[in-house]
Amino acid sequence: MLKAFKKIIFRWEVALLLILAAQIVIFGRINPRFLRTQVLLYSFNDFACVSVISIFMAYAVITGGIDISGGSIIGLTSVTLGILWQKGGLGIWTAAGVSLFAGALCGLFNGFLVAYVGVQAMVVTLGGMILFSGLSLVLIGYSGVSAFEGISGFPRSFVNLANGNTWGIPNPILLFAALFVVSAILLHGTKYGRYVFLSGINPNAARYSGLPVRNTVLFAYVLSGLSASVAGVILTSYLASSRSDLGGELTLPIVTAVVLGGVSITGGKGTILGVAIASVVVGILRFGLQMSGIPSQYINVGTGILLVVTAASRGLIQRYRGG
C-alpha cells in the first residue's frame, strides 16, 4: 500500500500539476485578474497551438528523433488556407481541409528522410523548417498578397472556430481535449503505440524482431506535421489573418512542453498526459508573465529557466524513486 502510494505521489505528472497550481497562485497574487475563471479559460486560446502540436510531436521524440519544423508548417498551412480561399475560390472549410493535407505532406517529407534515407532527425527538420518557411513566402509572393498585411476578411463561421465557445467553454479547449483523447489512446492503447516505444528503446532489436520500424517512424512524423497544420488552422482562425510568419516563435515552447512533459530526448519513454500538462504549464507561464507586465523579450528567459529547473527536479525525483 505504501509503495503504491509512493509511486503515485512521485509520478512526474503530479509534480507538473503542483507546478501549475503554484503558477496560478503566484500570478494571481501579482495580478488578481489572473484568477478570474474567464481569464484562465480564454488564456488557453493563446497557447492552444503549442498544446496541440506537442501531444503529437511527442511521438517523433519517443522514437528517438525530434521535429522542430512545426512552427514553419503553421505558417505554410495558414498561407495555403488563405490563398486557396481568397485566390482559389474554394470554400473556407474545403481550403482548411486541403491545408491540413499539406501539413501531413510536410510531415511525410520529414519522416521519409528520417526513416528511409537515414538522415538525422535534427538535420532533416531544421532543413524542413527553413524549406517550409521559404515556401510560405514564395506562395504568398506569387499570389500578389503583401507578406506584411497577410490575408484577412475570413467568414465569421471560420473565425468562431477559435474565438467562439460551446456551453461556455472556449472551442480551442474542446478541440484540444478531443485530440488529447485520440493521441492518448493511439500511443498508450494500440499496437502502433507499442511500436513507437519499442522503436525508441532499441530500433535494431525492434527491427530484428520483425516490427515495422521504418513505417512507425514515418507515421510519427506525419502525425507531427498534421498536428502542426491543425494548429495552423486554429491560429489563423484565432487571429482572423493568414500570414507566413505565424508560428515562427513557437518552436521553443513546443520542444519545452515535450521535454518538460517527461518524454526522454533519447527516445523510448513518455506519456501524453505528462506532455499535455506540461504544455499548459508552459502556456500559463508565458501568459502569466505577460499579465505581470514582464516585457515580451524576457518571456523566453522564463521558459528556459522553467525547463532547466524542472528537468533537474525530475532527475532528483527519479533518483529518489530508484533509491
Main traits of this protein?
two-stranded antiparallel ribbon, ABC transporter involved in vitamin B12 uptake, BtuC, disordered N terminus, 14 helices, globular
Task: Write a structural description.
With 323 residues, the protein is mainly α. It has a single domain, classed as Orthogonal Bundle (ABC transporter involved in vitamin B12 uptake, BtuC), CATH 1.10.3470. The protein contains 14 helices and 2 strands. The protein has helices spanning 2-9, 12-30, 37-62, 70-86, 92-117, 121-142, 156-163, 171-188, 191-201, 203-208, 213-239, 251-260, 272-291, 299-322; strands at residues 165-166, 169-170. A two-stranded antiparallel sheet has the order 1-2. It is globular and about 55 Å long. It starts with a helix and ends with a helix.
